[in-house]
Amino acid sequence: MASLGARVSLRYRIPDGLNDVVGHLEATDPVVMVRTKSGEVVEIDPADVVSVRELSHTPVRNSEIRALEHAAALAWPGTEQHWCDGWLLRAAHGHTSRANSAVPLLFSSSAQSLPEIIDWYAARDLEPWLALPERLLPIKAPGIKANRVLVGDLSPADPGAATLTSAPSPEWLRIYERDVPVDVLTAVLDGTVTFAELPGAATGDVLAVGRGAVTTAPDGVRWLGVSCVRVAESARRTGLARAICAALQSWGADQGATRAYVQVLDDNTAALELYRTLGFRLHHRHRYVRADSLVPHA
């Protein structure tokens, strides 16, 4: 079941079949309550619920998905880029999915470009992954790494005790733990990037880190992308992830960003709950599909 307050599409049993309702989830126990756009509250026995799908918190146009994805691609572009018929192809020697995938950013993007995309990645000895936001292309393959793109408004905030630098320090990399080269982490197109680290009060050792990148979407919205938020295992559930996010949001507001986004895997319930409490709400979904799985004899 989605969290309270989420906008959902819910299917449930009725005496003569099935029914659907779209609205905001107000309760799940002892009955499920969904408030529709008209204000009607539909009450449903939990045993009658067949499926629940969380929707964007407010209706989102395809153009808004495309604009946000454009800003996000600029914020994580890899170390090499190439435009192909409306697709932005990114490569970074195989480090991270976002930096090694092709994303459809223009209306001209279509599946007809897949053979050329496959060849471009093959020339770099990389798998031809497509980063597919929902609704932008009629590709039905389920893919992998299904995630949610969450968004929230930005306002000036207290950065706290976090240190912000233009490149990750050795301590930042130690807490981050992933083997991602610095040139991949610092890459950004037409924007700016920062790396936040937060020391523990007792020892002064770095215990939490995060990355922020500010880029501008084609519709003029200036976005802060929050990523790479990690907390040392010994210091988890102590508020440090929240503090890192606050520092990045403060920095983003100073850079002129008015909105923020974060990509979270569907099964990362702890992160989804954290960002929900920080005011982030679902904007759209995103997944990765291999281009050569869609082209016969590729």
Q: What is the compact description of this entry?
A:
By secondary structure, this protein is of the alpha+beta class. It has 6 helices and 16 strands.
Structural features, described:
- By secondary structure, the protein is of the alpha+beta class.
- The protein folds into three domains: 7-54, SH3 type barrels (Roll), CATH 2.30.30.520; 62-146 and 287-293, no CATH class; 151-285, Aminopeptidase, CATH 3.40.630.
- It has six helices and 16 strands.
- It has helices at 62-75, 114-122, 170-176, 182-185, 240-254, 269-277, and strands at residues 7-14, 17-27, 32-35, 41-44, 49-54, 80-84, 87-91, 102-104, 129-133, 144-153, 163-165, 191-199, 206-216, 222-231, 259-265, 281-290.
- The strands form three sheets. An eight-stranded mixed sheet has the order 9-16-10-15-14-13-12-11, sandwiched between helices. Strands 4-3-2-1-5 form a five-stranded antiparallel sheet, with no helix packed on it.
- It is globular, with a radius of gyration of 21 Å.
Distance between the termini: 40 Å
Gyration radius, to the nearest Å? 21 Å
Name given to the CATH architecture of the largest domain: 3-Layer(aba) Sandwich
Strand tally is 16
Strand content: 35-45%
Helix/strand-derived class?
alpha+beta
Mean pLDDT: 94
Largest sheet strand order: 9-16-10-15-14-13-12-11
Find the CATH superfamily of the largest domain.
Gcn5-related N-acetyltransferase (GNAT)
If helices are DSSP runs of H or I spanning 4 or more residues, what is the number of helices?
6
Number of domains in the coordinates?
Answer: 3
Share of helical residues: 10-25%
Q: Give me the strand/helix succession.
A: EEEEEHEEEHEEEHHEEEHEHE
CATH domain class name of the largest domain? Alpha Beta
